[in-house]
UniProtKB/TrEMBL annotation:
Organism per entry: Microbacterium hydrocarbonoxydans
Lineage of producing organism: Bacteria, Bacillati, Actinomycetota, Actinomycetes, Micrococcales
Record protein name field: YcxB-like protein
Segments crossing the lipid bilayer: 21-45, 57-77
Record keywords, A-Z: Membrane, Transmembrane, Transmembrane helix
Length: 157
């Protein structure tokens, strides 16, 4: 089975990739640190002897950093998905015995299951984590059935 990528699918796949990136363990640590910085900077505003000025900007800077992280993650996910599967590209997926076969346009990739560390199924994309890397591979969710996902999880580990 194959499908042709359109703008709606690209937006959905980019959203799923961004959600994945923003909820990875390293990102969770970042969110905890930024939230702690925000809370501490707000509490610091009430501390006796604290001068106005830069202390008043720290909560705004913390929120700004949070927004910047979200915006840059979404923009990066959009660029990556669009580069891998531009609108109009025909995409297909086949589950082999030892490898995942992915086709996009005229490109075909045979990726051994051992290459992957895990996967996350979103609403519009299945995100495959590459072992030993921060890189991921995304394929349209509609090309992978629930049974395929269960099989992939057992093969990938």
């Amino acid at each position: 089975m194959s499908l042709t990528v359109d703008e709606r699918l690209l937006r959905g796949m980019a959203r799923d990739a961004a959600i994945y990136a923003l909820t990875r363990p390293v990102a969770i640590v970042m969110w905890v640190a930024l939230t702690a910085a925000l809370v501490l900077s707000i509490l610091n505003l009430r501390a006796p002897g604290v001068r106005e000025g830069i202390s008043g900007l720290l909560p705004v800077l913390s929120i700004g950093l949070m927004l910047y992280a979200v915006v840059m993650t979404i923009a990066g996910a959009r660029r990556a998905v669009r580069a891998a599967t531009p609108p109009g590209t025909s995409v297909w997926v086949r589950l082999g015995e030892t490898e995942l076969q992915i086709g996009a346009g005229t490109r075909t990739s045979d990726i051994p299951y051992t290459t992957f560390q895990g996967l996350r199924a979103g609403r519009d994309a299945v995100i495959f984590r590459i072992s030993g890397s921060t890189a991921v591979t995304a394929v349209p969710r509609s090309l992978v059935s629930d049974e395929d996902i269960a099989r992939l999880r057992s093969l990938i580990g």
